[in-house]
Design a protein that fits this description.
There is one protein chain. The chain is of the alpha+beta class. It has two domains: 97 residues, no CATH class; 64 residues, Roll (SH3 type barrels), CATH 2.30.30. Helices cover 49% and strands 20% of the residues. Strands 1, 2, 3, 4, 5 and 6 form a six-stranded antiparallel beta sheet that branches. The longest helix has 29 residues. It is elongated and about 80 Å long.
Length: 198
């Protein structure tokens, strides 16, 4: 048993950084999680990238160590840098995905027409300051400002601020109600209103 543990422990330690990066990314981003096999492959790729970066840092520190030394490079220092790189990469990927940075560049260059967060999230993220009209399955219409919306087109709820019902294209203000929570299962489609001056 001790032999198996001693063989597996270095492998797990080597792969830890890639798994940390992907765990942080999926915790923070609204990206749909792939199946377990794909997540393992992504973690292995992240491990390879992090290993290259840490090896580059080791070379850089050793190079500048000829003139000024901070100490000797050890396995513990390499592991610490790996974990720091994993956390940084996980946070950076989550930020870039949330703000559609990489896909925006790819769209401008003509590589893709997709958004990093899917069409549903992209539409709400692109117009965060606009009012919307929720068209219900039973024909009712609710106008307001979405403070929160579901991450996917199915499931979840809309949190509407300043909700007003539209009846025959007349606005029926809901006095005394500042927010309304509407289940997404009741919504058939969403209309985005033109931008209004404050």
């Amino acid at each position: 048993m001790n032999e198996i543990a001693s063989d597996i422990l270095p492998v797990l330690q080597a792969l830890l950084s890639g798994f940390v990066a992907t765990i942080i990314f999926y915790w923070l981003s609204d990206t749909a999680k792939p199946n377990q096999f794909e997540r393992v492959i992504q973690a292995l790729i992240c491990t390879g990238v992090i290993k290259l970066l840490v090896d580059g840092l080791e070379w850089l520190f050793c190079f500048f160590g000829r003139w000024y030394s901070l100490g000797q490079w050890t396995d513990n220092i390499g592991t610490t840098w790996s974990i720091l790189m994993a956390v940084t990469i996980g946070l950076a990927l989550a930020f870039l995905t949330q703000h559609d940075v990489l896909y925006r560049i790819a769209r401008r260059l003509g590589f893709t027409s997709k958004a990093s967060v899917g069409e549903w999230r992209y539409a709400f993220g692109k117009y965060p300051d606009r009012g919307i009209v929720l068209n219900m399955r039973d024909g009712r219409r609710l106008m307001g400002y979405p403070l929160a919306w579901p991450a996917e087109p199915v499931g979840g709820h809309f949190l509407m601020e300043f909700p007003s019902w539209l009846v025959d294209d007349e606005i029926m203000v809901s006095h005394g109600i500042s927010h309304l929570l509407i289940p997404n299962s009741e919504v058939q489609w969403v209309e985005f209103l033109e931008s209004q001056e404050t």
